[in-house]
Design brief:
Order of helices and strands: EEHHEEEHEEEHHEEE
Strand content: 15-25%
Distance between the termini: 37 Å
Helix content: 10-25%
Structural class: alpha+beta
Radius of gyration: 16 Å
Number of strands: 11
Largest sheet: 4 strands, antiparallel
Length: about 180
Amino acid sequence: MTILLYKAAGTVRGDAILPLNQLRDRYPDLYEQHAAKYASRPHRTEAPVYPLDCTWADVVFLSPVHPRSIFEALQESGRIGPVVINYWTLDATLLDPATTCILLKRHDPELRPQPPEDFIPYTPATAASLSAPSARALHRLRTLNPTEPLYPWADIPHILHRGPIPLTHFRTSSGDPVVAQTR
């Protein structure tokens, strides 16, 4: 059985999905777009990813949890309406455990930095065991009040890969290869 990881679909150029720090040098416009997510918490990009000896801005983020369950819970809160979820998948066996780890996100999402004990070694089997969102995560998403930030993945485990991931490893939600934009 194929174990899938998920990535939000977006604009990509070149032949790989790049971490934020590499986007800055190669595609400044895409860097600005992605860096804007951290405008209210710029310190986050320098947070350590202990097992990979790098920072948050040096990794590509993937999720072991299908985005449908996350966004359905957000809809229950009344904070968002129906949404078409655009995502890509990646076969979990394609990632090298030497350049990949898992961040469990068991602590307050605003905790800076996340504690070292929340990072565990990556294996496809471990990723598969984390494929269902926790009851706590679903409860938080379902009960968000109007002033709380959305942060859909705040307490969902993260798969963190240091460095680029070849675009050929990704498929669209319908199973087609992901294609880079030419501009």
